[in-house]
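Before going further, learn to read the protein records used in this course. A complete example follows; check for yourself that the lines match position by position.
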Amino acid sequence: MMMNNFLLNNGGVANWISDSFPIIRGVLLGIVALACIVLIAAVLVSPPQTGVGRNAITGASESYYTKNKGANNQGRVRLLIIVSAITIAVCAILFGVTYSIYPAGPGA
């Protein structure tokens, strides 16, 4: 009798899942929104790549500056773009997993 009440009460999931997953999904959506704003700002700030096609045709070697892009601001912006895009992808996957485990929203 007690097991039937448990299964009918929350749709077959534990109480901690029904209590915490809506909160976790809200946090994940907030992180995705923040990462999207950072990604858009970083893409707008990053300068366009110049000279890539010309050097491929002429065979010119790269300068010290282009070899060490990670140490300057352009490299940092590129790293910020990559990190925010990965954050969006991971949080979107985690949101999908939490939604597949417990699809009901708050108050359900």
